[in-house]
Each structure stands twice: as structure tokens, then as C-alpha cells.
Amino acid sequence: MSKQIAHYNGLYGDDKAQVSHTYIYSQLIAPRNRTTNWGLKPHLHGNLYQLFFLEAGQATLDAVAEPMELVTPCVVLIPAGTVHGFTFSPQVKGRSLTVAEALLDTILQVSPSILIELNSLYVLSDFTEEESFAELLNLERHIHAEMHSQLPERQLALNGYFKLLFVKLFRLLKHQERKAAGSSNRNLHYFHEFQKSVARAAPFEKKISDYARELNITPVHLNRICQAVKGKSALEIVNANTIRRAHNHLVYTSSSISEIAYTLQFADSGYFTRFFRKHTGLSPVAYRAQAYRDEPHAGKAAAELPRAKQLPT
User: Fold this and answer.
1) Model pTM greater than 0.85?
2) Is 67 in a helix, a strand, or coil?
3) Handedness of CA 242, 245, 247, 250 (dihedral sign)
4) Which of 10, 23, 78, 240 is deepest in the core (most CB within 10 A)?
5) Are 65 and 10 in contact (CB under 8 A)?
6) Is 169:135 a contact under the CB 8 Å cutoff?
7) What b-and-e string marks burial along 59-69, b requiring 16 or more CB atoms within 10 Å of the CB?
8) Do 38 and 16 contact (CB within 8 A), yes or no?
9) What is the DSSP letter of 4?
10) What is d(CA 200, CA 194) in angstroms, rounded to the nearest whole number?
11) What pLDDT digit, counting tens, does each position of 8-66 carry?
């Protein structure tokens, strides 16, 4: 039977919600009186940005080809339109914050660089004295309290809290980038920026020379960096990103092979099939069929798909 990725305009499980452009929702992720894990199946929100502030307990993020074990405390940033799911231990503790993408655009329009940088999936767990996890969690609590107040100029206060929260998240991201560059060499910085650019670009939108030009380096230099850091060429990393996107369409949607080929900007479905088989050893049809049957080989194929983004840890 065909799998269809769940798509919610509201919160998880609410497929009939029509949220406004000022929508905000804050809730507690509290320990549960149970012995088994619980969670959220892979899904996406077309118009909502979500933040998970995980304070304690064990959690797994299912947003890439292979599930990622999270180390608490951490903050998970999930932009609109990003497929994601979670498995939580009964002891997990934290908070989640959901905000309309349109409201964030309005609040942060004075600093588009923050919107651009934080419009990818990130896991932030390396905190600083100025941007500690406790302070970020406290800001989320202030937002929750303000939401439920009837005080004058409530929206203005909420906008202020959101600005401060996202500035601090932006600073944390930059801190992690500086730390990565300083702990090894500038090649790591170039590689990280290249990965982000690949993740943001549409498949086949850019050539390797375009990515190199963005970094003010030559394609030869970019390839050397990718080989040194990842043991792969720049083109192999770009292709891995395309394969990951194809994986999401094949496993989480019922789109036809032709529709997927068109979405991923292949010239035709035949070229897409050849490309996919070359990089996975399976045709798109066979890959989808094995995934639906939940056969061990299909699970192995999915697990072996290379990740397209570097999730900071």
C-alpha cells in the first residue's frame, strides 16, 4: 500500500486547521507515566516553523535517511516544509514552540540574514555563557506566558521576545561555525558553507563552478576540500543531496516516478531512473516497493543514503 507523508497546516495530527498569519503555540513536553517510547511519525507543516527545546531524556530525530540520536539539552530548529519525526523516551522533558512562517517573516524582516541562516534543519547543542540553554528555554517560557496574558501591547512584546530568541539562535549557529573553523582549518568553514548552499539549492540549479564562485575559490580547490573533509568529490556530495530528496519523495509520497523526476528537474523519468539506480543500486520503483514491504534490504538501502546536510552537534 502506498505511503503518503502526513501534511498538517496546524499542529501534529490536526489536518483541518486553518491557522492565521499570527499563529503561535507553545506547549510542554512532559515526562509520561509509561515504560515504552513514544513519538511523532514523520510529517511536515507547510506554513509553520517549529522549535523543540529538549531539556532532558533521550530523543531521536527522524529527518534524514538515518535517524539521529540527540544529546540533551539541545534545540532543534525545523523550518516549514521539512519532513521530520521524533521518538521520545518516557523521561523526555522540554518545550516546543510553533509559529506561523508569515509571522516570522514579519518579525525578522529587518534582518533577512537571520531568516536565511536559520531556514535549514539544525540541531544546536553547543551553548555559550551568553546564549545558554537555560536562557533560551526561559525566553520560550516568557513567550508562553505573554501568549496567555491579556496585557496591553501583547503582540509587540511577543515580537520582542521572538527577535531576541532568534538573534541568540543565530549567534549560536555562528559560534558553532567559528568553532569548527578554528578547531581544524578554514577548509571546514568552506565545506560547511558549501553544504548549506547545496541544501538550499534546487536539484541541478547550480554547477560546481557556481558553488565555488560563491565561496570565492576555484572548483579544483572546492573538490580538494570535499575530498579532504568527506572523502568525496563536490559532485558526489551534490548528487547525494538529490538522492536524499528522491528518497523522501519515494518513501513519503505517492507521486509517480514521472512526477518525482519533474519535481527534481530531471529531463525525463528515464534519466531519473538511470541516475537513481547508479547511486543506490535500485531503480526508483524497486526502491519504493522494498520500502513499502519493510524488507531488511530496503531498510539497509535507506540507511546507506548519504546525508545532504550537516546537522551541527
Assistant:
1) no
2) coil
3) negative
4) 78
5) no
6) no
7) bebbbbbeeee
8) no
9) -
10) 10
11) 888 887 777 678 888 999 999 988 777 788 889 999 998 999 999 999 999 999 986 67
Q: What is each CA distance from 20 to 10, 17, 190, 221, 304, in whole angstroms?
A: 10, 10, 39, 47, 40
Do residues 3 and 252 lie in contact, with contact meaning Cβ atoms separated by under 8 Å? yes
Amino acid symbol at 64: V
Angle between the N-to-C axes of helices 133-147 and 154-183, in degrees from 0 to 180, rounded to the nearest 10: 160
> Biggest alpha carbon distance in the chain?
61
d(CA 43, CA 28): 20
Q: Which three cell numbers stand for residue 229?
A: 573533509
Asked if residue 15 lies in contact with residue 8, where contact means CB atoms within 8 angstroms, the answer is yes
Q: Is the pLDDT of residue 301 over 50?
A: no
DSSP alpha helices (H): ranges in the chain?
A: 101-107, 112-117, 133-147, 154-183, 186-200, 208-214, 219-230, 234-252, 257-263, 269-280, 284-293, 296-303
Mean pLDDT value across the chain: 86
**Which of 109, 27, 24, 126 has the alpha carbon at shortest distance from 74?**
126
